[in-house]
Amino acid sequence: MSKPAPTPVPARPRPRDLLKLTRFPIHPFDQIHGVDTSGLVPAAHLLTGHPNDRHVTAYYGVAPSILRALFVHWRETLPPHPLSRYTFLDIGAGKGRGLLVASEFRFRKVVGIELNPALATIARQNIAQWTAAHQADATARPLAPIEVVEQDALDFDLPRTPTLLFLFHPFEAPVLEQLLYRIEAQFAARPGTLDILYVNAECAIVLDSNPAFTQLFLDHVPMSPEDHAADVEAIAAQRDYGSTGDEECAIYRFTGRTCAQNDKQ
Q1: pTM (global) more than 0.85
Q2: From the CB of residue 261, how many other CB atoms can be counted at a distance below 10 Å?
Q3: Is the peptide bond before 25 cis (omega within 30 degrees of 0)?
Q4: Phi, psi (rounded to 5 degrees) for 54
Q5: Chain centre to alpha carbon of residue 70
Q6: I need a labelling partner for 236 at 20 to 30 A (CA). Which of 22, 86, 192, 204 fits?
């Protein structure tokens, strides 16, 4: 007599699976600049049919004060090239808040990679508004050129210039591992020319376990009071989440592998 098939046990939902779609409150950054980078978009609303959809986290704009402070910490690591030679590359750029903030600095170029068509469209609209407002202000400092590429980050050809790659925890470990392999392949002949800024560094162990990357910084970076107040209000609607007023941030440099490390592969 055959036994009945066992009843499958439903997967336990992850905290990020319980996130709610929100459009409010409007962050002060958006109110000041007339852009749309606010809200939280859960992974369930970011599906594109891509095989890596299951590893996507969520869209939530980085606190401007966090990114600006992280730039200061990065400069303290003594990057080997002038800022003006670096391409700032935001992987999982979302609505583009990180791109707008980065463009205030003298990067050679600011590029956002975003797989979701709706978010990429919003990011381009934000860039147009941001750029027009700065061009109309005779006192504003020049912006770095900004571009949004609607593409899978694992298919994107990384810049041939020195690169500062930004991650606001856009995906989980399996995709991060593939991205690191791609960096190794494309930057193998030029170690020291790619650095990573990682905010909300939940998968830092993936980088720490890869001998081709050297950790230069790891700490909790505080938000400004204005950003913290906005974060508290935005996160209030979410179950199992709260605002601590800071983000765990890490900085890594691609330094390549030694011959002995390559032999262990």
Answers
A1: yes
A2: 12
A3: yes
A4: -70, -15
A5: 13
A6: 204
